[in-house]
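To make this tangible, this section ends with a sequence with its structure tokens:
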Amino acid sequence: MINKINLLPWRDHLLSQEKTAFRNSLILSVLIGLTIVILLHSIIKTQQSQQLNLNHFIRDESKKLEMQIINQSKLETHTQVLISEIALIKQLQMNQLEIVQLIYEIPTMLPDGIYLSQLSQNNREISFEGKTESHQQVSQFMQSIEHSQTLMSPSLQIIKTPEKQTNVLQVNDFSLTATLRAQHIDTTDDHK
């Protein structure tokens, strides 16, 4: 007798199990894929957020550094101004001392017979105008200037006899210039 075995339900059952397994693995793959995408998205967002925070920090620090650089340049400019003002004050003090010393020294340099009518200064040049009884006295005055502590390089500009002489003594007009000697300015106190 021949038994008939019906294999169809078994095949349907196997096919149904395979479909279920395929569907489960497909759902699992989609869930794993979504989880990976969500994790990657989250990691990228975190890195972007960290990078943005770092960019903000760098921008803020750059602004702080720019302000410090501006303040530093202002301080340097102010320091240079102060140094130049100090040098100017020292120069003015030195000039004041030079003038006082010059005024003190002029009477000792003048030989008898020379009378100064005008004394003027233009930068480092001092101009003398006056009257003299002889040319030799002007020459002595120039030698005194050459040996002076405050003056040097005397230069005779003019010596002449006026046209109208009212005095019995003959008096000549003269004009000469001399240069102030450079005085040492102490710069050891300047900022380094």
